[in-house]
Design brief:
heterodimer, A: 5-stranded antiparallel beta sheet, 12 helices, 30% helix, elongated, B: 396 residues, mainly alpha, two-stranded parallel ribbon, 5 strands, C-type cytochrome biogenesis protein CcsB (chain B), transmembrane helix (chain B), transmembrane (chain B)
Chain lengths: 552, 396
């Protein structure tokens, strides 16, 4: 690999546009009056080597144009994904093909056929994000290494061609060069510049660390993307749902039987006029009293299993803590978080019946059937007894006209009771369902009269454990640091040199030229050194045919 | 307390209006090249600051009255966005001392606040998902970020008005007029909403929704487009019959409001064009004649440089933290989240084009305008049209 030796003696890598040390242009700049200072003229791999396939891939991904194109494509794709709801937001019990067509007509059908209903999980969307990731890595490496080299090796004394090709540049005659230099040096130091002096020349620099901002924030982004990728690694991420009725204790799914939860109570509250702050009255009136939700809460007790897991045996539980789980206040334990996400109010729990004499109406005791765990026999004393012959939680007549059940959920419970009494020792059979009673073997003397329904609330909780969160957090923090570092500071350099008895001054900043000019003005005020001219502005003015400019 | 709060907002609104005129005066003053201090600008910024303090007063008193920061519905959020816009303008003004910025930033803030006031303004209680300190942290930071980015739009707009050649029609003059038309249509929306609101117009329809259920809807503007199989209810007999009936999947009431706003905007725009006898942007051009283009360009960029990190923090990072706490996941591809990501990607592209591809000046100014359009889309369309988890209560 050939290297380029500058006349100042510094050896530059092949491809360098101007000397890392003295800034003398190494390539023919032609008529271009200003140097392109973006990467300090350093030799970037992508700009220098273009032979092999690897070189070409590298050059492709290191291009900002490609990076921006990827960003814009991702942007447009993301926007398309919001035209209709994504599949995760449509009702879960419908056929998506039908749903999109029915709700949104031909456009919805097309949307579904193109796979836009799951756009953000599609292979091509993920590929786009991955390509952005690759671009981030290559773009950063391609620039940061040579840039670091160039900034580290920059000399104090610069070649006149370098100075006169800066955007802010001026030459002044001053009476006492030494004194002026001394004053400038002092003022620069007072303005928190890091001043280096060499052979009577000055290089004042500040905020160089802001040049690393973009690379720091890119590192943050890459860490974030890695974190997002790790979610698909087994064990890193748990996402389960548990439905738990009041009064029950259940194993928490996803914890491998180590944790159990008991729901003491589910609480649902709404805002009500008279009870809540009266400034809300107008809003409550508009929506309706009792229509705005105020609180969803499940009071739970968390248990931990003690001892080994013995199949079939009742686990030994140890109370860990009591906690009210509310929206925004999940229960956290051992990297798990339990969230209040859903609920079902007033689910049937038990039904009560009274054994009654149909004619006299006299009753002989109450039978309460647990709809989830019914007993077979209920002894009412004095020779009265009821047996539950059959139970259909979700009753229907099947194809053959026989009673059966659709599910285990007590949506429509029906019972076959056999009632025993001292005067009916063989018992009477009665089929009891909601609003209907059938006596299959002729007239009965007794009946099971409906005496009440006990209900309970069921909480829907989400169980999460996410070991990627800290990686995502770290990525986010690094990204913010890099962003602030790069955006809120800028890298300013001022070169002051004596050349042929004149004072040459040139200045550069990576952004905020307005600020740099103000600083220069204050710096040079009263020193007799002329304010350097903004040659970019001059150029533009020349281009605009000398149009008048207003105040700056 | 709530009453005082409304009054303070009203005062702020009027003061911003007065401030605009002072900044206008400052431009006229400069044209005459008067020497000495620029009194107009000084009054302008003083009035603006007092207006801002009044609006802070509105914010604080409403917070005390409600017991939570007033950023929980569309009215409150948009008003707060207007307030942050003014705050961002004040800060940028003291960095760059550019009066013409006030002449354009304050009207944009006025439009934003007026637009906000068209939505239900009563203090609403917080639903469980919003009961968190993150409401204050996330929403205020996001709004501040968007407001600073909006200053970039204002500076970009000034740049374009100054630089686009108005002597002959072109693509540039056309799109600049589109921007003007959008701003005027917002005004149109405010005018028609206020007019029909004051007249107390109400027409109740019964209609068949997309699930084939009978529903009711109350229009507060005469129905140009009616709901699916809509019929005027008895108590609204005599109200205007819709000209066209919409299919069930389209929200006819919202479309109706959009149509009225567009009509009012078009009428206003045509009247202005007839009165001025030139393009709106051409009529504004003399106001910005003396503007330093490089400085305007720098302000536009600086606003993005300052606003982008704030936006990232508020609209993405804080948003993710809160989403993890309230909705169990930090990211769920909800439309509002996606549009925040789109905004972020857009400004990321903006910065890359500017820093690495050298897109300065006019190109950069157009990008600033597009960026603001995306922010407004997220504020307006995503809340009112797309509506996911973020759709605030009370936009019926």
């Amino acid at each position: 690999m050939e290297q380029v030796k500058c006349e100042c003696g510094h050896v530059n890598p092949h491809g360098t546009a101007f000397c890392e040390s003295c800034g003398k242009p190494l390539v023919d700049l032609g008529e271009r009056p200003l140097l392109d200072m973006r990467y300090e003229g350093s030799a970037r791999r992508s700009q220098t080597y273009k032979k092999t396939i690897i070189d070409q891939i590298w050059a492709f991904f290191s291009s900002v144009k490609v990076g921006v194109a990827l960003i814009v494509i991702t942007l447009v794709a993301s926007a398309i994904g919001t035209i209709f709801p994504q599949q995760m937001y449509i009702p879960p019990n419908v056929d998506p093909a039908e749903y999109y067509k029915q709700q949104y007509g031909w456009a919805g059908k097309l949307y579904y056929e193109l796979g836009f209903n799951n756009l953000y999980g599609s292979w091509w969307y993920i590929l786009l994000i991955a390509l952005i990731g690759v671009s981030l890595v290559i773009c950063s490496l391609d620039r940061v290494i040579p840039l670091y080299r160039a900034l580290k090796r920059q000399g104090v004394k610069r070649h006149p061609h370098f100075l006169e090709r800066q955007r802010l540049f001026g030459v002044s005659h001053v009476s006492d060069l030494d004194k002026t230099m001394a004053v400038l040096k002092e003022r620069l130091a007072a303005r928190r510049y890091h001043v280096r002096e060499e052979g009577g020349h000055l290089l004042a620099e500040k905020g160089r660390f802001s040049r690393w901002g973009p690379y720091v924030n890119h590192i943050g982004l890459i860490i974030f993307l890695i974190g997002a990728m790790l979610r698909s690694v087994p064990g890193m991420y748990t996402d389960r749902v548990m439905w738990i009725p009041e009064g029950e204790t259940k194993e928490i799914p996803g914890t491998n039987g180590r944790y159990f939860l008991k729901s003491e109570k589910f609480i649902f509250e709404t805002y009500e006029k008279g009870k809540d702050n009266e400034v809300f009255n107008a809003a409550i009136d508009r929506v309706g009293n009792g229509m705005i939700a105020k609180n969803y809460q499940t009071n739970v007790v968390l248990y931990k299993r003690v001892g080994p897991v013995i199949p079939g045996a009742k686990p030994k539980l140890e109370k860990v803590k009591e906690y009210p789980i509310r929206v925004n206040e999940p229960l956290k334990f051992d990297h798990y978080a339990l969230y209040q996400v859903d609920f079902r109010l007033n689910e049937p729990k038990a039904m009560s019946f009274q054994l009654a004499d149909k004619q006299s109406g006299k009753t002989f005791g109450t039978v309460t059937v647990d709809l989830y765990d019914p007993k077979e026999s209920y002894n009412l004393g004095h020779g009265y007894r009821v047996e539950l012959l059959s139970y259909f939680p979700d009753f229907e007549f099947d194809e053959d006209g026989n009673p059966s059940t659709k599910s285990r959920v007590p949506n429509n419970p029906a019972f076959v009771f056999k009632m025993y009494a001292p005067d009916r020792p063989k018992g009477e059979v009665s089929f009891v369902a909601i609003r209907q009673t059938i006596e299959p073997f002729g007239d009965n003397k007794y009946k099971m009269a409906f005496a009440g329904l006990q209900t309970r609330n069921v909480s829907g909780l989400t169980v999460r454990r996410d070991f990627t969160l800290w990686i995502l957090g770290l990525g986010g923090v690094i990204f913010m640091i890099g962003l602030i570092q790069g955006m809120y500071w800028n890298h300013r350099r001022i070169w002051v040199q004596r050349i042929n008895g004149e004072l040459w001054i040139a200045a550069h900043t990576n952004k905020n030229w307005f600020g740099l000019k103000n600083e220069l003005r204050r710096l040079l005020d009263g020193t007799g050194v002329a304010m350097p001219t903004d040659r970019l502005e001059e150029e533009k003015q020349a281009g605009q045919g000398g149009q008048a400019h207003g105040t700056a | 307390m709530a009453q005082l709060s409304s009054t303070l907002l009203y005062i702020a609104f009027v003061l911003y209006l007065i401030g605009t005129f002072f900044f206008g005066g400052a431009i006229r003053d400069k044209r005459k090249e008067r020497q000495g201090k620029d009194r107009w600008s000084q009054f302008g910024i003083a009035v603006t600051i007092i207006g801002f303090l009044a609006q802070v007063g509105y914010f604080v008193t409403r917070w005390i009255a409600a017991g939570h920061a007033p950023v929980s519905n569309l009215f409150e959020f948009t008003t707060f966005f207007g307030m942050m816009l003014v705050a961002a303008f004040i800060i940028i003004y003291f960095i760059y001392r550019l009066s013409v910025l006030g002449l354009f930033a304050l009207p944009v803030a006025l439009l934003v606040i007026a637009y906000a006031s068209m939505f239900p303004r009563e203090i609403s209680p917080l639903i469980p998902a919003l009961q968190s300190d993150w409401l204050h942290i996330h929403v205020t930071t996001a709004a501040a970020g968007e407001a600073i980015l909006a200053i970039s739009f204002v500076a970009g707009l000034i740049y374009l008005i100054r630089v686009v050649d108005q002597s002959k029609p072109s693509k540039r003059t056309f799109w600049l007029e589109v921007v003007m038309f959008c701003l005027i249509t917002t005004l149109g929306f405010v005018i028609v909403s206020t007019a029909f609101g004051l007249s107390g117009y109400e027409a109740k329809f019964t209609w068949i929704d997309k699930n084939k259920q009978t529903a009711e809807v109350i229009y507060d503007m005469p129905a140009l487009v009616g709901p699916h199989k809509g019929e005027l209810a008895k108590e609204s007999a005599g109200r205007m019959e819709p000209l066209v009936e919409m299919p069930a999947m389209i929200n006819a009431k919202k479309l109706n409001t959009v149509l009225w706003s567009l009509m009012a905007g078009t009428v206003l725009y045509i009247l202005l064009r007839l009165g001025l006898r030139k393009r709106i942007a051409a009529a504004l051009q003399p106001l910005v004649k003396n503007v330093n283009l490089d400085l305007t360009d720098e302000i536009s960029y600086r606003a993005v440089a300052i606003g982008f990190p704030v936006f990232t923090l508020g609209a993405l990072i804080f948003a993710m933290i809160w989403a993890q706490i309230a909705w169990t996941r930090f990211w769920g591809w909800d439309p509002k989240e996606v549009w925040a990501l789109i905004t972020w990607l857009f400004y990321a592209a903006f910065l890359h084009l500017r820093l690495s591809k050298g897109w300065h000046g006019e190109k950069s100014a157009w990008l600033a305008v597009i960026g603001f359009a995306i922010i407004m889309f997220n504020l307006v369309a995503v809340n009112l049209v797309i509506a996911g988890l973020h759709s605030y209560a009370g936009t019926s």
